[in-house]
Amino acid sequence: MSRGDRQQAIYLDDVDRQDFLKTLAEACQKTGFQVQAYCLMRNHFHLVVETPNANLVAGMRWLLSSYTIRLNHRHKLFGHVFKCPSDCTYTGG
């Protein structure tokens, strides 16, 4: 799960939701993440991912920073989108 900074919305419209999913797909290609489930909420999201390469932190950092840059550019905004650090939980298996 990763929450919006100050509990603000992390998607301003449906295009942003699609951009987030596109960025997530790119992150999966770069990292080998395998998304098992996701849920996009107004001010946060949940992901269930398998990380065969043990690179969860680096992959999440890339996902969150890339989406932030794209969102800020599209809407002419600046600053953080997500609360840091992200709330990642390792469930093992």
Describe the structure.
The chain is built from two helices and three strands. It has one domain (2-75). The two termini are 19 Å apart. The protein has 93 residues and is an alpha+beta fold. The model has no long low-confidence stretch (mean pLDDT 90). A three-stranded antiparallel beta sheet has the order 1-3-2, with no helix packed on it. The protein has helices spanning 14-31, 56-75; strands at residues 2-3, 34-40, 44-50.
Question: What's the SSE blueprint?
Answer:
Layout: E1 2-3, H1 14-31, E2 34-40, E3 44-50, H2 56-75
Antiparallel strand pairs: 1-3, 2-3
What would a concise description of this structure say?
The chain is an alpha+beta fold and about 90 residues long. It is about 40% helix and about 15% strand. The protein has one domain (about 1-75).
Instruction: Let me know the largest β-sheet.
Output: 3 strands, antiparallel
Quote the average pLDDT. 90
Number of domain modules: 1
Count of separate DSSP helical elements: 2
Question: What labels describe this entry?
Answer:
3-stranded antiparallel β-sheet; 93 residues; alpha+beta
